[in-house]
Amino acid sequence: MTQYTPDTFKLLAKQLRFELSDEEAIDISNEFEVLIHQMNLLDKIDTSKCEPMVYPFEEETSFMREDVVEQVFTQEEALLNAPQKKNGFFVTRKVVL
Amino acid sequence: MIEHFKHKASVQKALDKALAYQPKLNAMVSFLEPTSQLEALKAIDPSSPFYGVPIVLKDLVNMKGSITTGSSKILENYVSPYDATITQKLSAKGAIIIGKASCDTFGMGGTNMTAATGPVMNPYDLTRMSGGSSGGSAVLVASGVVPMAIGTDTGDSVRKPASYCGIVGMKPSYGRISRYGVIPYASSLDHVGFFTTTVKDAAITLEVLAGRDDKDMTSSNRPVEAYASLLKGDLKGQRIGILKNVIDSIQNQSTLKEFERLCQKLEAKGAICVPIQLNEDLMHAFLPTYYIIANAEATANHSNLDGLRFGVQKEGDDVEAIMSATRTAGFGKLLRKRFVIGSYALFIENQEKVFRKAQKVRRLIVEDLKKALSQCDVLMAPASSQGAPRLDDQSADQLSSEYLIAENFMALGNFSGYPSITIPFTLVDGLPVGINLTASAFEEAQLLDIAYGIEQVTQWADRTKELV
After folding, report:
1. Looking at the complex, does the CB of residue A44 fall below 8 Å from at least one CB of chain B?
2. Verdict on whether the full-model pTM lies above 0.95
3. B207 lies in a domain?
4. A18: which chain B residues are within 8 Å (Cβ-Cβ)?
5. CA–CA min distance B212, chain A (Å)
6. Count of the separate structural domains present in chain A
7. DSSP assignment of B157-202
8. Kind and range of the H or E element at B242?
9. What CATH number does the domain containing B124 carry?
10. pLDDT digits (tens, 9 = 90+) for A13-53
């Protein structure tokens, strides 16, 4: 991906499951010029002897917990934000074709 | 000050004031009816630090039964089915949550101009911005509505609005406060933070919020200290590193003059001000590194906002069409732009060249910061180069040193996870400007103590800007 046209960004947006208007795609394309200049500043830095930093601290804080029930939603609570429900189930479009 | 809000009428007074200020500040997204919370106070020890004290939560924080929109359109009707850990902790200490405060959508912004409910105004000048992303929380404390408000900080989203609004804004070390139940932006950079009007109140608040939470596996196991009772404020012998890269890139002469005067006053109190120069190439690469990491993580975090799992569902003939219609209607322009940038960084051929490269530069930046902090107790610099910009100000040159360094350096605290606090120090052209202090990892007690000492020099504790 070396050419950055408005259509490039429309395609990226489509992969992210949203649409960009023509005007928006042109705006992003123009702003991307500035961003590319900024990103080029990273190329000045020698990172050949460096590992990526994924999180701030490397001390271990996670562990496998016992599979014990601690927090339970009622059916009513679980369905609270459902746009459509029927007989205690979520109603949605067919997902598996 | 929190203590001044511990009386029976304070909750109703805060609600009345928040409602009265709403047309001018536009700080609240939703109001909460406090009766059940006030009833629950009967079971709480009256000596608890927040007993009966009104507070607000940033609109990213879940509270069971309340609307939590993330100041977005896509979650405009989302009702929280559970409490965030910090919500439970605050309630257990007697806090009364009167509502949710506006923010940039999902915390993604530095202006509070992108909230679905519109911009938040600065109480010092209603034609100017609050700063963001935690702008609603900041102005509600700055205008004296509540003595403490919760924010979140991924780049400087507590510490920048604190500077613009003349109040204290703190984010502690990464993992010091649980993020369980807080809508994320970028998981490796997100911190819970808070606003108060005094450093002592910040210490009290941190004591309530801090601590390990097994529901947030990134939270720290380190013990919580008695931050408030450890405050002494003696600056004698404290080594304060002056961040030269930031000073050298600020153009506003009044800010520089005021900062120099402050340094002289601190030295008169026995502090030792040490100039610190971070690697200039790293500082210039700082902002793009942040953009790449933050936006890539955000793109992944918000992929579940699709109208099926979360979000106001829009019509479509099939699942794909529903997702696309939902996300197109639900995301604002800035959000769409950020997601596209994030997706660019994660694109398969860019992963090594862009995303991994940024993560490597991040490590070098943090190593440089760590080295700097081995020479001093805290690093200090103005938290903003000047007062809050006007709402329509788009004059910043995004390739200038002032923009790349002075206006964005506080993300050092997010890259590193080190604790960082902004406290007010002066007015520039009639607008507040704060100073920012950053300490080594988990040195919150020392950070707060030095901030407490500086607060006694600036004599700015507990000032609010009431509206008439």
Report:
1. yes
2. yes
3. yes
4. 324, 327-328, 331, 336, 339
5. 9
6. 1
7. TTHHHHHHHTSEEEE-STTSB--TTB--S-TTT-EEEEEESSHHHH
8. strand B239-243
9. 3.90.1300.10
10. 999 999 999 999 999 998 888 888 888 889 999 999 999 99
